[in-house]
Design brief:
By secondary structure, this protein is an alpha+beta fold. The chain is built from 14 helices and 32 strands. It folds into five domains: 178 residues, P-loop containing nucleotide triphosphate hydrolases (Rossmann fold, 3-Layer(aba) Sandwich), CATH 3.40.50.300; 85 residues, Beta Barrel (Elongation Factor Tu (Ef-tu), domain 3), CATH 2.40.30; 72 residues, Elongation Factor G (Translational Gtpase), domain 3 (Alpha-Beta Plaits, 2-Layer Sandwich), CATH 3.30.70.870; 107 residues, Alpha-Beta Plaits; 111 residues, Elongation factor 4, C-terminal domain (Alpha-Beta Plaits).
Length: 597
């Protein structure tokens, strides 16, 4: 049993691509947790996707042993994802730590997500160790970045460690500071068991493996434990610590970080942030638990309707790995059977699509992403709508409320004008503007989430040449003047193309969609009318002209009535064709709506 005075639990806070996974590799090497021959870049990122994009999607935890002055210390590194979509996971990982390494890229300075995760850490009273990474690069600006760090957390200049994940500079100093600055975990091994789950993974042979930190008490193999929020009881099959693999231990007590296996088959029963306690002698739950709520919704349909069952299996397997993905079956006139999926954000949506393609070979169409709205009817009923098709008649609606976010954007001062224009176009309201240094500003906006869902992030990156960093959190719902825009083909609505959007944008958007569809829909033997409609009012129209056959070619000379007779016959045929013909909407049309600009 380990003495909790020699345990240090810490996490790493950094913006995407500031080199935290590389620095973690060096820490693992220095503590000999991993042998030289097993070493590869970004050891902790085990998905191909993570390695390719260089982002951390799932949190990882690993234990290192470090000998200092002949004493053995256990260092538990709880890795956190840096991206905004996974901020709840980050908050639970932070709650399991006593200290944090704040890593800042010496070439880029402080970015938006660093700040939001740093505030989370400060709220949980963590000890912060500031580190400047990538000092080996020729374009590092240590003095400038040091000034930013001092202004941000108010530390002394001498406490900032200069390091490089690539060369290993400063890593020994980081390890020393982890031992001296970060406090040992508090907790009583003899108190009732109280443990916090900060992550879970699914193993097809063992079921769900939960990663947890013991706050108080001791847990042993064979104990009967209770998961408080899920309200389920289990027998403990195995507990242990997380090295490069899982290492079995007889027991884990206060301050330890490890894993627990209870033979749980469904990932939904384990919730990140839940508390584990003993059935015989229960403790109170650790505060801060919340059910993680999806924010962005989109329909996911198989390209070939026969693949529906395969898609369902793929979704089930994905959900085992990623409990924050929600889905319900839905059907669409245009696309057949599919699922309405809820995602935490846009990156999450993109990753799920990629994983469906990579891991399950599923080719899918995704409809226009939208957010959930609160609808109040005239009768006083309030309900959530995830899909424009589920909206009641306009005459029955009293008001619609949409989710709002507080967006933080950090950028160079020369891009402020164009970024403000972009945010104001998206119905944003500026609430704050701070200069972090002479040429870097932090802008805060109140914006509707629905406006940033489609293409905001891409535009922001291109306007700022990649120098703006963006972070947001949901602030609540507010009433808005929203209308449902339907797209009609030959007076038949195409449900997969209908969207909910603000009155001011409806005309412009309707016109652009119709123009785009006109290019993409193949010509038929008859005219195809493409119309944008709000309720019964048509706001835009384009026509795909018919392909005509010259039926009068065989009629030469003679009376005009002979020509007329042939043309009338053709006209009747076209009319009949139009009644029974249906217009195929090509794949590209659905994708085009996502990328209208």
């Amino acid at each position: 049993m380990s003495d909790s005075n020699n345990i240090r639990n810490f996490c790493i806070i950094a913006h995407i691509d500031h080199g935290k996974s590389t620095l973690a590799d060096r820490l693992l090497e220095m503590t000999s947790t991993i042998s030289g021959r097993d070493m590869e870049a970004q050891v902790l990122d085990d998905m191909d996707l993570e390695k390719e994009r260089g982002i951390t999607i799932k949190s990882h935890a690993i234990q290192m042993e470090y000998i200092h002055n002949d004493e053995k210390y256990l260092l538990n590194l709880i890795d956190t994802p840096g991206h905004v979509d996974f901020s709840y996971e980050v908050s639970r990982s932070i709650a399991a730590c006593e200290g944090a390494l704040l890593i800042i890229d010496a070439t880029q300075g402080i970015q938006a997500q660093t700040i939001s995760n740093l505030y989370l850490a400060i709220e949980h009273d963590l000890e912060i160790i500031p580190i400047m990474n990538k000092m080996d690069l020729p374009n590092a600006m240590p003095e400038v970045v040091e000034d930013q760090i001092i202004e941000l957390i108010g530390c002394k200049r001498s406490t900032i460690i200069r390091a490089s994940g690539k060369t290993g500079e400063g890593v020994a100093e980081i390890l020393e500071r982890i031992l001296t600055d970060i406090p040992a975990p508090e907790g009583d091994p003899d108190a009732p068991l109280q443990a916090l789950i900060f992550d879970s993974v699914f193993n097809q042979f063992r079921g769900v493996i939960a990663y947890f930190k013991v706050a108080n008490g001791t847990v042993r193999k064979g104990d009967l434990v209770k998961f408080v929020a899920a309200d389920k009881q289990y027998n403990v099959d195995e507990v242990g610590v997380l090295k490069m693999g899982l290492e079995i231990r007889d027991e884990l007590s206060a301050g330890d970080v490890g894993y627990i296996i209870c033979g749980i088959k469904t990932a939904r029963e384990i919730k990140v942030g839940d508390t584990i306690t003993q059935v015989k002698n229960p403790a109170i739950a650790i505060s801060g638990f919340e059910d993680v709520k999806p924010m962005v919704f989109a329909g996911v349909y198989p390209i070939d309707s026969e693949d529906y069952e395969d898609l369902r299996n793929a979704m089930e397997k994905l959900q085992l790995n990623d409990a924050s993905l929600t889905y319900v079956p839905e059907s669409s006139m245009a696309l057949g059977f599919g699922f309405r999926c809820g995602f935490l954000g846009l990156l999450h949506m993109e990753i799920v699509q990629e994983r469906l393609d990579r891991e399950f070979d599923m080719n899918v169409i995704t409809t226009v992403p939208n957010v959930s709205y609160m609808v109040t009817t005239r009768a006083g009923e309030v309900f959530e709508v995830y899909n424009p098709a589920g909206l009641p008649e306009a005459t029955l609606i009293e008001q619609i409320e949409e989710p709002f976010i507080q967006a933080q954007i950090i950028t160079r001062s020369e891009y402020i004008g164009s970024i403000m224009t972009l945010c104001l176009d998206k119905r944003g309201m500026m609430t704050k503007q701070d200069y972090l240094t002479a040429d870097r500003a932090e802008l805060t906006f109140d914006m509707p989430l629905g406006e940033i869902v489609i293409d905001f992030y891409d535009k922001l990156k291109s306007i700022s040449k990649g120098y703006a960093s963006f972070d947001y959190h949901i602030t609540g719902y507010r009433p808005a003047k929203l209308v449902k825009l339907d797209i009609l083909l030959n007076s038949e609505p195409v449900d997969a193309l209908s969207t909910l959007l603000h009155v001011d944008n409806a005309y412009n958007f309707g016109r652009r969609i119709c123009e785009k569809l006109k290019e993409l829909i193949p010509r038929q033997q008859y005219d195809v009318a493409i119309q944008g409609a709000i309720g019964a009012k048509i706001i835009s129209r384009e026509t795909v002209k018919a392909v005509r056959k010259d039926v009068t070619a065989k009629c030469y000379g003679g009376d005009i009535t002979r020509k007329r007779k042939l043309l009338d016959k053709q006209k009747k045929g076209k009319k009949r064709m139009k009644q029974i013909g249906n217009v195929e909407v090509p794949q590209k049309a659905f994708l085009a709506v996502l990328k209208l600009d």
